Amino acid sequence: MVNSPHEAMHRIFQEYPGLFTGVSKVLGLPVIQPTAVTVLPTDVTESQPVERRVDTLLRFDGDAPLLLAVEAQNARDPKKPASWAYYLSYLYTKYKTPPLLLVVCQDRTTAEWAARTVRIGPERWAALTLRPLVAGPHNMPRITDPDEARADLALAALSAITHAKDSGVDGILKALSTALRDVPESVADPIVEFTARGLDSVRRAADFWRNLVAVDLSFYKSSISEEIRAQRRAEDILLVLEARGLDVSDAVRERIAGCDDPDLSREWLTRAITVDSAEGIFAEREDSA
């Protein structure tokens, strides 16, 4: 679904366009209640060899239609303001609809940099002014109440993602996992996935979330929960082998870690208790093949 924090920070708006309503409240904007939302192509390339793509692009239709360009930004980049100004100008020309830029960040320094007003043109008369909206740890709410998380699961997931580097992220994640216990698996799965991928660059927060999912949401069968349980089972197998003083080669570690068959990994865990060598956990299945 998503493979990195960068993707999670902008694609969550594709999956949950209504998330922008919650974000707009937080940022003090008039609440936008569109009659329809369309995910648009992200390509903003002209007929020239340089390819340009906005991360996520949505069209909100209604009384006051607008385009929402969402950019995930992980670090300061002096080239970005010019690119963002180009995106907005191009989109306004192409769609004849007012564009809005939302930049999502995971650290305060980047968020404050992205939020600067940038004037493009001569010092005394700027021809173009860039004013991005920014969602980051400096202004996104810390949603630590399960009831509040349950009221807007997507906003709670974004809260966790933007506060991934904060020590208080544990409370946000606990509230989110508690809220997810009460919803159907089809609703919980994408939220679990977006949160997991959004935390991937912050090891401590990612591990904390994986442990919560493995325990609190153990009844779910989503790809991420299965991945978490497989990882934990692989760790258990290696722990048993090492506790018994057996030599575990890199090849054995890779094979155990790469196993995606839960029945087979359970067999290996059982055998790890009695085998004479680490390689012995594989023997029975290989002999019967």
Distance between the termini: 34 Å
Order of helices and strands: HHEEEHEHEEEHHHHHHHHH
- Compute the gyration radius: what is it? 23 Å
Shape: elongated
Strand order of the largest sheet: 1-2-3-4-7
Tally of individual helices: 13
Arithmetic mean pLDDT: 87
Enumerate the spans where pLDDT stays under 50 for 5 or more consecutive residues: none
Multimeric status of the protein: single chain
Main sheet attributes: strand count, strand direction, barrel closure? 5 strands, mixed
User: What is the structural class?
Assistant: alpha/beta
Count of separate structural domains: 3
Helix content, binned percent: 40-55%
Beta-sheet strand percentage? Answer: 5-15%
Count every beta strand, where a strand is a DSSP E run of 2 or more residues: 7
Structure overview:
- The protein has 289 residues and is of the alpha/beta class.
- The protein folds into 3 domains: 5-135, no CATH class; 141-220, no CATH class; 224-289, no CATH class.
- Helix content is 50%, strand content 12%.
- Strands 1-2-3-4-7 form a 5-stranded mixed sheet.
- Helix 6 (153-162) runs parallel beside helix 8 (185-198), helix 8 packs antiparallel against helix 9 and helix 10 (223-243) packs parallel to helix 12 (262-272).
List its salient traits:
alpha/beta; two-stranded antiparallel ribbon; five-stranded mixed β-sheet; single chain; 289 residues; 12% strand; 7 strands; 13 helices
How would you briefly describe this protein structure?
By secondary structure, the chain is of the alpha/beta class. It is built from 13 helices and seven strands.
